[in-house]
Amino acid sequence: MVKGKRLRKSTDKPTLGDVAKAAGVSTATVSRALNQPHQVKEPLRLRIEEQINKLGYVRDGAARALASNKKRMIGAVIPTIDNAIFASGINALERRLYEEGYTLMLAVSNYDPMHELKQVRDIMEQGVDGLLLVGNEHASETYSILEKHNQNFANLWVLDRESPYPSVGFDNFRAAQQITQYLINQGHRRFGFISGITEGNDRATARLNGALSVLEEQGIALHSQDIVECRYDIWEGRNACRHLLSRKKSSRPSAIICGNDVLAFGCLTECRELGVSVPEEVSITGFDDLPLCEHLTPSLTTIHVPSQMMGERAAEFILDKIAGRESPSHIEVPTQLVVRESTAQAPN
């Protein structure tokens, strides 16, 4: 995986012959593996695919389409469509692109970097004018293929001014610091953290590390048993919450920070099931500010992420790149702490 490190750029685009030579097969075999993969034995097909990924090869017909730059099509690969925060941002992105006469082509990676790589290559073979990804952490082959073909692209939902790759988003680390500091100011000293799975997800990692940095600065320990990593799912949030609250009352967390609102929904539900009062016994926070947050009982304290603005800014950035207009390499979308009923002063 590569995070914000520019790869050595090659001006020579790989050819079908390069792939064949690297794989030790004929060009006809490579062509068959691409166009009729069921006719090629799996070990050989996988060997050819490995060289395609390594070299960053895109089929000739697609390369001509890329060069013509007249498809008026933008590609986007997102991790999931289960999370409403992505749906809202993509909806705003599509609407803004449509206003300018562009069509959006969407794919879902399910947080799998190699699946994302295949989708990026497949989308580029359609001759898209621009490509949008989520996060800063992608397979090295993904960055390689983008650079070799001079593809206009940006990373979304992340802001990394140190990265050589353009980004449109926010500082997940700093936002997590803000919500953690708020809870400390409320007198909390015993914390639990329910995180999304950090492997392959730089946003989840940044949120966890942001919280840990503030706690460490304040001399507050967060041990391994206080951190649960799980999928962004309500039932996963419930199970994680039950684990954190299973110890005796005097040692369990008085505040639980959740990596997103979906996990917080699960946590609130489990507290109700266990008879644990929120926020009197435990404060709970989320991240994203989904529309449901303000209608829950209690309503959820969270970090507001302006997902519609994210989609609009992303569209404007990629349109500027296509048109050759000057624009900043990193565009910040501001987040905001929204305090509601699910948090309060720490219990005595």
UniProtKB/TrEMBL annotation:
GO terms for molecular function: DNA-binding transcription factor activity; transcription cis-regulatory region binding. Residues 14-68 form the HTH lacI-type domain. It holds the Pfam family Peripla_BP_3. Keywords: DNA-binding, Transcription, Transcription regulation. This is Transcriptional regulator LacI family. It comes from Vibrio nigripulchritudo SOn1.
